[in-house]
């Protein structure tokens, strides 16, 4: 089965969907509301499941060239600098860390020219048994399928899932930054009610994130950099130095939200993907990775089923249980990692786990999330 799709959203999930559609011979238009296609200045890591999905899209080699190994999952510390668990290169499987813009660029370069339209704010979606039409400021188009990949505040979800709950604030907030740094292995420092994450990035940079509790959302400060620095005063090096080296305008303050489970990711000829379907907290590092998985599974279903209805039913049946379980797991992990009451218990338990056992649990097949294998996609069509 081939056809034409409209993808709303030009982030990592939307571009992954476009790459996947291209591989199975579909045509697509990607509608991005921003005037230019770019990702905000923050970092991320991708686990083995996401890297396999990128391989299935045909961009795994390019992604590995853009990423940097990070040992954050195996280097756990206390604020005074003592290690709870430690792994040096070669002792454990690293994740791959990216600046979001670098992974975004890898995917964008794999999207056929002319597929992406910027400055397109979706205003309506209507469908019948034969087609679906999307309107946006200044235009409209009709296709066989619409993929809503427009993020946690998805317009497509609001229009077609009007009874869906709004994003849920999880009682936590985060400061993020990217700055110059060399030879950092990656780490997570666990404090009472907060943690500090470090990932190395390409170009001699590092990404940092300080995550803590906050009873109310949307609390902001006149000097966000100074506030972040104040909260980690006395924490071990290089934490204070990383914040100090970050330009004030590069410090991002975000509240952490997710989505309660939807009963379906499909309405007629419309499918939700990524954060539009299952936005999750960052505590398992799976948000972008699950959206890339979505793209691969959706394309495999479209290529493998005789009709669109069957393909979308398969996509929903395969993706909804896995992604919603990941949302629940990330939510629970976040509560534990920022609970002052549980801090001593958690750190004691982590310290008592033998190092080899800890590292074995973080190998590429060490947990159910990372063991996922993607379906195969055909090679992209060759045009003369």
Automatic annotation (TrEMBL):
Residues 6-329 form the FAD-binding domain. Pfam families: FAD_binding_3 (PF01494). Residues 375-384 have a biased composition (Pro residues). Residues 318-341, 364-384 are annotated as: Disordered. This is 2-polyprenyl-6-methoxyphenol hydroxylase. InterPro entries: FAD-bd, FAD-dep_Monooxygenase_BioMet, FAD/NAD-bd_sf. It comes from Spongiactinospora rosea. It comes from the Bacteria. Gene3D superfamilies: FAD/NAD(P)-binding domain. Keywords: Monooxygenase, Oxidoreductase.
């Amino acid at each position: 089965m081939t056809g034409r799709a409209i993808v709303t959203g030009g982030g990592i999930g939307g571009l992954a969907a476009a790459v996947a559609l291209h591989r199975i011979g579909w045509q697509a238009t990607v509608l991005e509301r921003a005037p230019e296609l770019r990702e905000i200045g923050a970092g991320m890591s991708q686990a083995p499941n996401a890297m396999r999905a990128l391989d299935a899209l045909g961009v795994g080699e390019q992604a590995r060239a853009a990423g940097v190994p990070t040992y954050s999952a195996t280097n756990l510390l206390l604020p005074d600098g003592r290690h709870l668990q430690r792994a040096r290169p070669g002792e454990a499987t690293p994740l791959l860390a990216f600046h979001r813009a670098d992974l975004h660029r890898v995917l964008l370069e794999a999207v056929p020219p002319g597929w992406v339209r910027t400055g397109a704010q979706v205003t309506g979606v209507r469908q019948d048994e034969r087609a679906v039409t999307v309107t946006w400021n200044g235009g409209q188009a009709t296709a066989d399928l619409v993929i809503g990949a427009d993020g946690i505040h998805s317009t497509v979800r609001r229009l077609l899932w009007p009874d869906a709950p709004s994003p849920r604030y999880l009682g936590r907030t985060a400061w993020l930054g990217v700055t110059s740094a060399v030879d950092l292995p990656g780490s997570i420092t666990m404090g009472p009610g907060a943690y500090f994450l470090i990932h190395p990035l390409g170009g001699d940079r590092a990404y940092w994130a300080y995550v803590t509790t906050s009873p109310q959302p949307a609390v902001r400060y006149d000097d966000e950099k100074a506030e972040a620095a104040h909260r980690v005063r006395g924490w071990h090096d290089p934490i204070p130095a990383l914040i100090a080296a970050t330009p004030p305008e590069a410090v991002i303050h975000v509240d952490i939200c997710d989505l309660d489970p939807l009963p379906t990711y499909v309405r007629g000829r419309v499918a939700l993907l990524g954060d539009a379907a299952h936005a999750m907290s960052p505590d398992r590092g799976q948000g972008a990775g699950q959206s890339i998985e979505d793209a691969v599974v959706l394309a495999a279903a479209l290529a493998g089923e005789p009709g669109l209805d069957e393909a979308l039913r398969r996509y929903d049946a395969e993706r909804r249980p896995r992604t919603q379980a990941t949302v629940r797991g990330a939510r629970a992990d976040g509560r534990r990692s920022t609970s002052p009451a549980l801090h001593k218990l958690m750190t004691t338990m982590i310290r008592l786990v033998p190092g080899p056992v800890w590292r074995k649990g973080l190998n590429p097949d060490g947990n159910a999330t990372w063991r996922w294998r993607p379906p195969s996609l055909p090679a992209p069509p060759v045009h003369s």
